[in-house]
Amino acid sequence: MALNLRQKQTECIIRMLNLNQPVNPSGTANEEVYKILIYDKFCQNILSPLIHVKDLRKHGVTLYFLIDKDRKPVHDVPAVYFVQPNNPNIQKIVADASRSLYDSFHLNFSSSIPRPLLEDLASGTLNSDSIHRISKVHDQYLEFVTLEDNLFSLSQKSTYVQLNDPSAGDKEIEDIIERVVNGLFCVLATLAVVPIIRCPRGGPAEMVASALDQKLRDHLLSKNNLFSEGGGFVSSFQRPILCIFDRNFELSAGIQHDFRYRPLVHDILGLKLNRLSVPGEKGGMKSFELDSSDPFWMANGSLEFPEVAVEIETQLNKYKKDVDEVNKRTDGTAGAEFDGTDLIGNTKHLMNAVNSLPELTERKQVIDKHTNIATVLLGEIKERSLDAYVKKENDMMVRGGIDRNELMSVLKGKGTKIDKLRFAIMYIISSETINPSEAEAVEAALRESEVDTSAFQYVKKIKSLNVSLASANSASRSNIVDWAEKLYGQSISAVTAGMKNLLSGDRQLALTRTVEALMEGKPNPEIDSYLVFDPRAPKSSSGTSSSHLKGPFKEAIVFMIGGGNYVEYGSLQDLAQHQQPAKQVIYGTTEILTGMEFVEQLSLLGQKMGLGSSAAAAASATH
User: Fold this and answer.
1) Can you tell me which family this protein belongs to (predicted)?
2) pTM for the model
3) What integer is the mean pLDDT of 163-191?
């Protein structure tokens, strides 16, 4: 049983668009009803990668609006609302109903609506004498964004900063954990699976795993629960494993430069919700969509950039050859651009040629799209020497350091301020010991390039805490641990563990290697201390390592708290495909971040701790 999150979420949305009526095999409702769709910004992002305008039309949606927009009444037409369950949205719905904007209101909330909000909705519509307009209220459990079959995001911004903020109180941390748990619960409810949950001890990963285990247990007590179709207790080989990690488990993966196509497109061109814009030839911007409908993107996303360039050339030559073939068969001119005007003469081949025209046109559009994208990428790579950054960062991680002259030449060479900052942080992470004079020289070079050093100093602080933990005596050690755990959850050991993990020759991510071990389920010192939760098992046995919960597993859901990226996603997909037989790994995260976006969060934490050049500038300005 493959877990197809994209398909399952799309089916839920289609059912919702059809007023939650069953749909027939063709994917449409048995009775055609024209309707209006109202959504908020968050739910627009859920719909955007899955449903296009033509799909809305197919399901009878004639108009669609953001809930915040001023809207005119449309009588005799039902409205489908798809919004988050929060107070502003409830107030908007009550106002819309009281103004009789639509004939009937079908309310769909992206996650379970809390009772107080439901009561506000009831009292608001009662008081305005419009409760009869509310046809149905549904909890849809769709509060996540699916970008590919095996990739999702909870779209929860700045989780890393919020969880690592030294001034965050217990209540704030609990609220963040609860939001993450609710998002993961929605994913599992959509898939209708109750997984075995594994996580490292301590920090946000354990907090989320434990709270999710409890939420699933509570839900499974109700008779008509969302997982009842999944049946009773089945063997671990048929149930997926959910592996939960915190970004501090492997900080480097969020910062490093990468030369593979998918991570490069995301990092350099800012791929968002499967869309990006690049400068056009005649000025202006060109927008492109990169999703499962693009065969080139799906087939070549994990290739290194030079291989992608070769593949584009290969596809173009094949296209030209196929066009020449069609032209020959129809007595057209070889080498001419194929536009259908030369289809004369040989009627025997005419129908074949006509039939191949749409497919050829489509192939040409895909080739043109990726030629455009690759051209822009190549310009950025040359201008910023990105290939050199990738190579030197890899070398640093493998060798555990870098020659000082080489280090300084990169920091004084090509690249944006953020490129240099990321490289400097990778130097800190990869160095087994930090030479103080070398670190000072790095900071001086960053300041010379007018780079804010807050993020660099923040990571250096974590690193020095690690070193001092190793050398401090037990009395002072406990104080450092208290402060460090408050600040970084389980990251104190994990950051350094991540650094050590990456010093292997094959450069497999620590995350990927750990997931592989968890899926295999064999005894392994790296994961033997990991916690195990089985929400279907009696409470007393959870948290221990019962043998039947150890796997092996065919399917895994890997979730990264505090921001994920296409580097980890690609690495996990490679792992899944190279297994014999092939396995499935779904990768999810609180939000998908570029290297620049993640470093900005590190900078913010550095500033909150009074570190870095911007903090120093602010301090001097106040004196």
Assistant:
1) Belongs to the STXBP/unc-18/SEC1 family.
2) 0.89
3) 95
